[in-house]
Design goal:
By secondary structure, the chain is α+β, with helices and mostly antiparallel strands. The chain is built from three helices and seven strands, in the order βαββββββαα.
Length: 163
């Protein structure tokens, strides 16, 4: 077998209520969730509401080339969204699945759990590519989690200046 499997989980506490973060994540008018990845250039969706089976077109910039990929929503229930992502045309070198789950941690914070599973379908990938990606992919998922937090957290105030 020439492929190399990846299974990675990362998490982060977000100082915002789970409901607010969830609304941001599922907003079909902005699709910001599909733009937090460093490789994602743009995202398009023709529907009015994300649902299981919805397809989001995600343009990728992979440094040396651009490609269109299709993210098909496979799970969508309160505080959990998942999709499979495949190349729109041609041989897919990295079909993968991503799942994001929010867990409430009280009224004002939540934790995001970000899971990525996939297979690199390149000759010899398990020898030359996988070790590099074991270092790089955690940075990508941590960056996604950080961008989601940054977009949804309220600024902290050390003291009340309203009186």
């Amino acid at each position: 077998m020439n492929g190399a499997n990846v299974n990675l989980k990362r998490h982060r506490v977000i100082n915002a209520p789970a409901g607010e973060v969830w609304e941001w994540m599922c907003d079909p008018s902005s699709l910001d969730l599909f733009r937090v990845n460093v490789f994602h250039v743009d995202a398009e969706f023709d529907g009015e509401e994300l649902q299981v089976g919805s397809q989001v077109r995600v343009e990728h910039n992979l440094g040396i080339r651009r490609e269109m990929r299709i993210a098909r929503i496979s799970t969508l229930r309160p505080f959990e969204i998942a999709w499979g992502e495949i190349k729109a045309e041609g041989k897919d070198w990295f079909p993968h699945y991503q799942k994001l789950v929010l867990t409430a941690r009280g009224e004002g914070s939540c934790e995001i759990h970000n899971t990525l599973r996939g297979t690199f379908n390149l000759p010899g990938a398990k020898w030359w590519l996988l070790s590099w990606y074991r270092y790089f992919l955690p940075l990508v998922l941590d960056s996604e989690n950080r961008k989601i937090a940054s977009a949804t957290e309220r600024p902290r105030r050390d003291h009340d200046t309203s009186h």
